[in-house]
């Protein structure tokens, strides 16, 4: 807006007087009133970059959510697992400080599973970030046809993290950008962007011996990359599990929205299944569209529990939710009340995602298998979200008299 105004100012034709040609004197007419000044166009308020900036208010009582004992036990197990990382990590959201989680984590370690709901109801406080209006999608652990070696019908490389991929935290240079990552590689003494999806698919990494496997179907592999982990079903019937091991640093583009905005998808095609069907029916156009998502994910083989989330811990179907760490402390419990009842309930933020950005934006994890694929692929839920944080932190944020701070 400022640049446009500046350009407009530069293009004003100067008056004759300014140009050195004073006009002849006029008769004594009453001077014309000055032109009315156009009202200033109000600038939109900048979007908050953290939960603390978005504002926090106390939430409802935990009992009002009606969390069943089984779901509470699963969430308590995930919370216990997350506690070491939760206490160790610097909280980018601004909601908690060092030491805030110590008491809750100590209580969780000894709390009886039979009263898991009692733990959440008494040891943590519920707060709402911003307006609390939530949007939730879903992800799952896909299983696709693959091979450890290249062979006919298995020709899509699955790459491990390249050794020349460099990752840095911009906060090391600019404190206000803490948590913002930059990735690239060094060439000629300069850090340059890493090859994008199209360049990698055209052979930018060929000959570097980075292949850990080969997928049979480029469309299936594209969506496995979107999910961030998965399973390769090998020709002998065995399974190779692969997990996220880095990304090329290029921007993630959600092709479903892109295709919808271009009118390529009708109302009944907006699910993952609908997108995949269109890509298969239009292979040349589909390949070009997939390349518009320049982000490319690298993998490593998993031999233990998995898949692994952003806390470097196993994630759990119907318990783990991905969130933006600028708005949710990773490891914190999350309560959702959505128009998709299967996604409503108690979750634990143990993961992140390239498209999961902003306040009250979540991605629910559903595990593996056909049911998980169906639910995750069609998940688009809207409603309200709340976080659960230590009571001391809530008291500091909303005041000691608020419901969020009460014992």
Automatic annotation (TrEMBL):
Biased composition (Pro residues): 32-47
UniProt xrefs under SMART domains: MltA
Pfam family, one: MltA
GO biological process: cell wall organization; peptidoglycan catabolic process; peptidoglycan turnover
Annotated region described as Disordered, given as residue ranges: 15-56
PANTHER family recorded: MEMBRANE-BOUND LYTIC MUREIN TRANSGLYCOSYLASE A (PTHR30124)
Protein name (Swiss-Prot/TrEMBL): peptidoglycan lytic exotransglycosylase
Native organism: Rhizorhabdus dicambivorans
Taxonomic lineage: Bacteria, Pseudomonadati, Pseudomonadota, Alphaproteobacteria, Sphingomonadales
């Amino acid at each position: 807006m400022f640049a446009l105004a500046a350009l407009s100012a530069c293009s004003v034709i100067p008056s004759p007087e300014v140009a050195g040609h004073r006009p002849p004197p006029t008769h004594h007419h009453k001077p014309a009133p000055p032109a009315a000044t156009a009202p200033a166009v109000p600038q939109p308020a900048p979007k908050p970059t953290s939960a603390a900036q978005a504002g926090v208010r106390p939430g409802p009582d935990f009992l009002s959510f009606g969390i069943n004992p089984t779901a509470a036990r699963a969430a308590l197990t995930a919370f216990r697992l997350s506690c070491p990382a939760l206490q160790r990590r610097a909280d980018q959201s601004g909601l908690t400080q060092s030491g805030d989680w110590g008491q809750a984590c100590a209580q969780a370690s000894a709390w009886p599973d039979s009263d898991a709901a009692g733990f959440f109801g008494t040891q943590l406080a519920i707060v709402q970030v911003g307006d609390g209006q939530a949007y939730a999608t879903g992800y799952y652990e896909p299983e696709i046809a693959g091979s450890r070696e290249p062979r006919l019908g298995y020709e899509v490389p699955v790459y491990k993290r390249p050794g020349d991929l460099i990752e840095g935290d911009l906060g090391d240079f600019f404190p206000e950008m803490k948590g913002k990552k930059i990735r690239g590689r060094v060439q000629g003494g300069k850090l340059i962007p890493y090859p994008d999806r199209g360049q990698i698919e055209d052979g930018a990494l060929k000959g570097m011996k980075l292949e850990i496997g080969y997928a049979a179907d480029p469309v299936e592999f594209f969506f496995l990359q979107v999910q961030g982990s998965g399973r390769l079903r090998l020709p002998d019937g065995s399974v190779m599990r692969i997990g996220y091991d880095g990304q090329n640093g290029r921007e993630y583009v959600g092709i479903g929205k892109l295709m919808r905005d271009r009118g390529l998808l009708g109302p009944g095609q907006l699910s993952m299944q609908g997108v995949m069907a269109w890509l298969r029916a239009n292979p040349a156009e589909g390949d070009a569209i997939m390349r518009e998502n320049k982000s490319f994910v690298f993998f490593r083989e998993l031999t233990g529990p998995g898949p692994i989330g952003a806390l470097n811990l196993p994630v759990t179907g119907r318990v783990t939710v991905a969130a933006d760490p600028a708005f949710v402390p990773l490891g914190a419990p999350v309560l959702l009340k959505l128009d998709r009842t299967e996604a409503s309930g108690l979750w634990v933020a143990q993961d992140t995602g390239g498209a999961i950005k902003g306040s009250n934006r979540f991605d629910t994890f559903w595990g593996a298998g056909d049911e998980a694929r169906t639910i995750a692929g069609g998940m688009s839920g809207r409603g309200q979200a709340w976080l659960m944080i230590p009571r001391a932190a809530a008291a500091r944020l909303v005041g000691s008299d608020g419901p969020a701070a009460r014992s």
